[in-house]
Design a protein that fits this description.
By secondary structure, the protein is mainly beta. It has a domain at 7-104. Helix content is 0%, strand content 26%. The protein is built from no helices and 7 strands. The protein is globular.
Length: 152
């Protein structure tokens, strides 16, 4: 099975395997549990910074403590009924949703979206040398079955 991206249709928010036209990379302002429009909706063809009020992309700010929070529902093993909802908070703000994807595959091969937890700095589609140096420091990782409060 080929690896599928985290692209979703702009109108239906259904997960799609590729992005032939306009699609979303981040779906936080258009999905449950953020139906009020807060969060980030990042269009693949127009990746501009957002402020968490409905449009634009979440770009981690430099020199800032960020809390990343995910709600992952594992569906049927071998099926495509898992989901991932991701949130971020920084600078004392409330959590803002930046990802909401349903229909995620959960199988036992290495191409599935739920086979590993990978923490990295990652810049895609760069034809030349990266325009900036990118480093990240992960201070701690907490795995919890309970909600994590935003930092003060």
């Amino acid at each position: 099975m080929p690896r599928q991206g985290w692209f979703t249709d702009v109108d239906t928010n259904e997960r799609i395997p590729s992005c032939p036209g306009d699609c979303l990379l981040e779906q936080g302002a258009s999905t449950t549990p953020s139906p009020d429009g807060s969060g980030y909706n990042c269009h693949y063809q127009n990746q501009v910074a957002g402020d968490g009020t409905g449009s634009g992309c979440f770009f981690p700010p430099p020199d800032t403590w960020i809390t990343h929070y995910e709600v992952i529902h594992l569906g049927t093993f071998g099926g495509d009924d898992s989901s991932v909802y991701a949130f971020e908070t920084h600078g004392g703000s409330d959590y803002k949703q930046w990802q909401g994807v349903d229909g995620v595959s959960w199988h036992e091969n290495g191409d599935d979206h739920l086979s590993v937890l990978r923490l990295e700095t990652y810049m895609t589609e760069i034809a030349n040398v990266a325009p900036v140096d990118a480093t990240v420091w992960y201070d701690e990782l907490i795995v919890s079955t309970e909600a994590i409060a935003p930092p003060l």
